[in-house]
Every structure is written in C-alpha cells, then in structure tokens.
From TrEMBL:
Gene Ontology MF, one: RNA binding
GO biological process: maturation of LSU-rRNA from tricistronic rRNA transcript (SSU-rRNA, 5.8S rRNA, LSU-rRNA)
GO cellular component: cytosolic large ribosomal subunit
Gene3D superfamilies, per the entry: Ribosomal protein L30, ferredoxin-like fold domain
SUPFAM superfamilies, per the entry: Ribosomal protein L30p/L7e
Name listed for the protein in its UniProt record: Ribosomal protein L30 ferredoxin-like fold domain-containing protein
UniProt source species: Rhododendron griersonianum
Length: 107
C-alpha cells in the first residue's frame, strides 16, 4: 500500500491548509498560530506539522484535530463518477502507487 509522500503532504498543507482555532477556520499564515496551539507537543512550525502528518508521528491525532479538512478540486477528466474500483477501471478505492498523482491533480 502506498501513502502520500512528503511533497504531496507539503503541497496540500501550503495550498489548502486551514487551522481550527477556537472553533474558527484560520489561515496558517505564520508559525505563531501553530506554536500557540501545538507548541505543548513540540510542534512549532509548518514543517513540523508536515512531518507529523507524513510520518504519522506520536502527535498525529492532535495535528489532524488542529487542521481543517482539505477542500479538494475535482480533477478534470480524471474522475468519471463510476462506482467501480480503481483497480478494475473505476474511480473509487485504493490508488496505491498513483495516489500522489491524484493528489496533485486535485490540489
């Protein structure tokens, strides 16, 4: 099974990353927000957030709770709405080695 690589995680966080602070969606424009909310876990900057997500580190749950869900775009001509598995020519399911390509199309 293939997982998104560090570059894909980094691109998602920089382009689509929003944080939840006091139930408000906040843009992660600086490291101050990250340090205030996640500093107690030793996560001080956006690079620490990226690393924690990409490596599924010890504070993965806290970081994913801090981030808002990503709003991804539908890739042009990539998804057809078929309900067949990807490995059988459809769009749903595990993209395995092609997950990073899909993320780049949707980002």
């Amino acid at each position: 099974m293939q997982y998104p690589n560090l570059k894909s995680v980094k691109d998602l966080i920089y382009k689509k990353g929003l944080a939840k602070v006091e139930k408000q969606r906040v843009s992660m424009t600086g490291n101050n927000i990250i340090e205030q909310e996640l500093g107690k876990y030793g996560i001080l900057c956006i690079e620490d957030v990226e690393n924690e997500i990409a490596t599924v580190g010890p504070h993965f749950k806290e970081v994913t709770g801090f981030l808002c869900p990503f709003s991804l775009n539908r890739p042009e001509k990539a998804l057809h709405g078929k309900k067949k598995l990807y490995e059988h020519g459809g769009d749903s399911g595990n993209y395995k080695d092609h997950i990073n390509e899909l993320i780049s199309k949707m980002n």
